[in-house]
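Exercise 7 asks you to align residues with tokens for two separate proteins.
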Amino acid sequence: MRIPCPHCGARDVQEFTYLGDAGLQRPDGLAATEAAMFDYVYLRDNLRGLHEELWYHGAGCHAWLAVRRHTLTHAIESAVPAKSRWTGAAA
């Protein structure tokens, strides 16, 4: 699989580290219940289809990317700097 890094171009997946689901919302630390923190840390859905994930380009530009990937075909629809995903700013 090759990931199209917005800074370095298409690179082999071995240059990246997978973090996980980009859509998880961390519960508020002080107000969160133990069950909510357990769910956040340990429980994941195993989705079929398009999924947005966080990847770190450790052997390249050291940027965090939000990659939209199909989990069956591994086809990548988009890869953007993770920072721009949350702020809406350009990289």
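Second protein for Exercise 7:
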Amino acid sequence: MKRNIRIAAGQGFWGDLQRAPADQVRSGPVDYLVMDYLAEVTMSILRKQKQKDPSMGYARDFVSVIESILPDIVEKNITVIANAGGVNPLGCRKAVEEVIRKAGYKNLPVAVVHGDDILDRIGELTGTGEELKNMETGESFSAVKDRLLAANVYFGAFPIVDALKAGARIVITGRSTDTGLTLAPMIHEFGWKADDWDRLAAGTVAGHILECGAQASGGNFLGDWRSVPGMERIGFPIAEAYPDGTVVITKHESLGGLVSQMTVKEQLLYEIGDPTQYITPDVVADFTTIQLSDDGPDRVRVSGVKGKQNTPFYKVSAAYSDGWFSGSTLVYTWPEAFEKAKRAGEILKARLDALGFRFDQYNAEYIGANACHQHLASHVDDYPEVMLRVTVRGHDLKSMNGFGMEIAPLILTGPPAVTGFAGGRPKPSEVVAYWPALIRKTSVKPVVDVEVVK
């Protein structure tokens, strides 16, 4: 057993810094590179892409990342784990294998974890008693069943562990938990058992710290953000993991950024509900037991984490079509910019009402005045400029198109000193809504498939 392993974060979302994975594998020693590409809405976007082209449906950025770092991960024996597969992990592997062959590498095992996509099994599953009701509102699944765009189960770390045991050097998953990407190599390297709740909780906490990339190493830092050095080339976080469950969060010394108790604490609070019940497929972690201590410059030790038995359910992330959305902006300039923008919003609303257009939501925001903090925003006597941003949402496509026809005329038929209108009449976009549910673990089985590139 190794004394420790170093797990480097390479991406915090699809669209993150493309150079980060290369920086992580070239700026110092790491054993694993983990990359998180998927958010709830990302699966719906990928589903639409696959509907247009059956060979798509995965995070294409991942393929170019592998192409750029392939020599490094081969020569330095670094294993890559990523949930880049989206709704087409097998297609993603095919693209990666083509890159490997083109580069002339052989005998490189590439694994896929799939079986999470249950869209085509919805009828079967509901027929056998899976309710799939909204876990937040309790609403019946029948309300959205006929409008589904995507439905994926969150698998945990253990299918990835099976892939690592089979010798995989690149593991591509579909909808796996973000935390499982980091937890899996700890289970694999240290031989943790499936009921070793405290260690599984420790690895889950480490995964939570790494899942948003540089947000744990100085990016988006609400504290003394001016104190974060070298953000031009910010270093992503690294989890230095030990067999007893202790983890040190750090970064490469040569890269910018900051790892402190404050940056780690901010990330620990990200997307947290009940801190005593952080539920994953692998374990229920108690975040109130986390102990942080300094361990040198840019090093924070995480210890003392306690965990409880996991639940008999997987979480399902489903998405469904829920009407239309449209929006546009106009900029009003000094003097009386805020007053002009508010009056323009009122005029537009009155015109839309008079035409009989109906929306589920009509929202006028005043960017530069109070859009973010509303009544809590500081008052300014006369703003130099204010952006009016109007958005509408509804199920009547005629009304949505009508909004697009009425926004531009405000330029010559509303308050003066307006600018910033570009791009023509706004066109409605389909609203993709989120439906979280639970499903019994016995109803879905992950599939682990390993191929050796020859």
